[in-house]
Automatic annotation (TrEMBL):
The keyword Repressor belongs to this UniProt entry's keyword annotation: no
UniProt family annotation: Belongs to the class-I aminoacyl-tRNA synthetase family.
Protein name as annotated: Tyrosine--tRNA ligase
Signal peptide boundaries: none
Enzyme class: ligase
Entry-linked SUPFAM superfamilies: Nucleotidylyl transferase
Example GO biological process: tyrosyl-tRNA aminoacylation
InterPro entries per record: aa-tRNA-synth_I_CS, aa-tRNA-synth_Ic, Rossmann-like_a/b/a_fold, Tyr-tRNA-ligase, Tyr-tRNA-ligase_bac-type
EC number of the protein: 6.1.1.1
Record's catalysed reaction(s): tRNA(Tyr) + L-tyrosine + ATP = L-tyrosyl-tRNA(Tyr) + AMP + diphosphate + H(+)
NCBIfam families xref list: tyrS (TIGR00234)
Pfam family, one: tRNA-synt_1b
GO cellular component terms attached to this protein's record: cytosol; mitochondrion
Length: 256
């Protein structure tokens, strides 16, 4: 994860999403609290850019300044511990929380069993449900410990601290049947768009190709954001630069 990518989804009158592709001169001119937070994260190398490209320099800082927002990032428990690639995403969540925004760490108890093809030249080794469940528990404890330690030892007690929540996406997928899920969510995704994603194109050109399981991963990550948007008012997602295709899928799904 070279850097984090932030994506914002706005609802209501501002149904179109606004975000920042590159934190350049327009953001430097912003004196708002929202603009200051984004500029600080950019200077620290935590944030690289944002999606979508339009209306970013004003709308996202204004959104962050208008009221506490909900920000989420996903972590697939494919191993029994966090790794260095998770560091920037966690730092990003801590900074948003320290600025008074609510943060959610979503553990991919469901998506880890599917496997994210991003950045991979071959299919991930399939993990058993038992392994994923065990990994989920240890990573949950690690993230909760990080949130607690940040609050105890690093947060400025004179500033309002946002809430921190850890969820498992298995909790909303376990109630869905395959046919029901495809009927509800699948109709909102276009094959041409999904095939155009860089992660898909790279795998299709590889000797091993891509399985149907991996191909559907972007649908599940998109649905995660849609679910959090609907149930928790989540408008912003953090993710690694290799996740841009998945982030775009979620943004497009929410707009439909």
């Amino acid at each position: 994860m070279a850097a984090a990518v932030v994506r914002v989804c706005e609802r209501g009158l501002l149904r179109r999403s606004g975000a920042l592709r590159a934190f350049g001169s327009p953001l430097r001119r912003s004196s708002s609290a929202g603009g200051g937070l984004l500029l600080s994260l950019h200077k620290r190398g935590v944030l690289k850019d944002s999606f979508p490209e339009n209306a970013a320099q004003d709308r996202l800082p204004q959104l962050l300044q208008s009221a506490p927002q909900t920000v989420y990032c996903g972590f697939d428990p494919t191993a029994d511990s966090l790794h260095v690639g998770n560091l920037l995403a966690i730092i990003g969540l801590l900074h948003f929380r320290g600025a008074g925004h609510h943060v959610i760490a979503v553990l991919g108890g469901a998506t880890a069993q599917i496997g994210d093809p991003s950045g991979k030249t071959s299919e991930r080794e399939r993990l058993s449900a038992t392994s994923v469940e065990a990994n989920t528990q240890t990573i949950r404890e690690s993230i909760q410990r990080i949130f607690t330690n940040h609050e105890m030892y690093f947060h400025d007690s004179h500033r309002t601290l946002g809430t921190a929540t850890v969820l498992n996406n298995m909790s909303w997928y376990k109630t869905w049947g395959v046919v029901e899920f495809l009927s509800e969510a699948g109709r909102h995704f276009r094959m041409g768009t999904m095939l155009s994603r860089h992660s898909v194109q790279a795998r299709l050109k590889s000797p091993d190709g891509m399985s149907l399981t991996e191909f559907t991963y972007q649908v599940f990550q998109a649905f995660d954001f849609h679910h959090l948007n609907q149930t928790r008012g989540c408008r912003i997602q953090l993710g690694g630069t290799d996740q841009l295709g998945n982030l775009m899928s979620g943004h497009e799904y929410i707009q439909k």
